[in-house]
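DM between two lab members

TW: hey, do you still have the UBA domain-containing protein entry open?
JB: yeah, one sec
JB: this one, 408 aa:
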Amino acid sequence: MRPHIVTEASVPTRLSQWWENIPFLTSTVVFVCGIIYFVCLLVGYDSFGEVCFSPSDIVSRFQVYRIYTSILFHGSLLHVLFNMMALVPLGSEMERIMGSVRLLYVILLLATSNAIFHVLIALLAAHNPINSYEYLMNECAIGFSGILFSMIVIETSLSGAQSRSVFGLFNVPAKWYAFILLVVFQLLMSNVSLLGHLCGILSGFAYTYGLFNFLLPGTSVYSAIETSSLLSSCVRRPKFIVCTGGNSSGYIPTHSSENSSSSGFLSGNLWRNLSSMMPQREVSTQPVQDNRFPGRGRTLGSDHGQQASALSSDSNLQARLLDDNNSGHPLDSSTLGTAQQISDGRQAGSNVTTAAVGVPQHQGAVASDEKIKKLVSMGFDRTQVEVALAAADGDLNVAVEILMSQQS
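TW: and the structure you got?
JB:
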């Protein structure tokens, strides 16, 4: 038999798996931008001046469509490849957090805000009385990179990282990461729109700080759009991500708000915070009452142990008394008092038992005197007889055995 051969997946298989892992909207944007570029390449379309972002055409001719057409067209193969490869990780992460419909709205909102910032800055620079920059009004910009810079700012804010790596070469503070990338791209590449990228960064910060919250609809609006018949075919696709409605205000919370709660947790005693979340055992001095078993709880064997210990102490005392009498030592008053208490207790117990069964109390006393006289007539000492009868609970046979064992 041939041994098991481990073969690697082919390149088409890897590409298919990679494409299936990209969410619906992100893969749609990549597909649309790629198709548009290849169609323009095939038909020889290069009149990008008709679709690019031009502040002068937007202001003078009111060609607002340029705001959205400019982000779909790209000037070269490297341009579209670089932008789409950067979009895949950023867009996939944001789409999984926000949902496909919400991310589409955010992209349109960022594109609109980028255009507004771009036009305002270009107007201010062109009409600057000190030194005017009129070429900014005639600039023609295309590409998805402005939206990418906005996504970079949002993703950096969400990640909570204190520093970010620039192409693995060096680390920079996270708040300056987007600006460092802007400078690097300006130095390494030609024909790059500085103002377009800068406006993308400004839009990202504006979104992060909640300046666009009044423009963001609630989750019910996204849910209504997702349940409409127009998107029924898209929603059924496995790559489509439905808006879960986790955030009631409809926008991603910034990392600074999360840090405020986490810093409060870490500022105190860590062990105290962890132990407070652990289940604690309550110690109660009151007995636990079970409705199925009413009454006072009692530990099994506790009464039996107490009775056994009491009987053991009584028998030890009685044995010591017998030993003292046999050795000829006189009994002191304390010992006699203790023995008398024991005898009285036994007698009281027998009296109670006798009374419970209806026997008169004086009959029990007479029976005890008769037992004492009977044992004394057998030659035993009266004191030893009383102690032996108390130890034997009035049983003559047991009392005789105790007295015989002491004499032997």
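TW: got it. The longest strand covers residues 163-166. Residues 24 and 238 are 8 Å apart (CA to CA).
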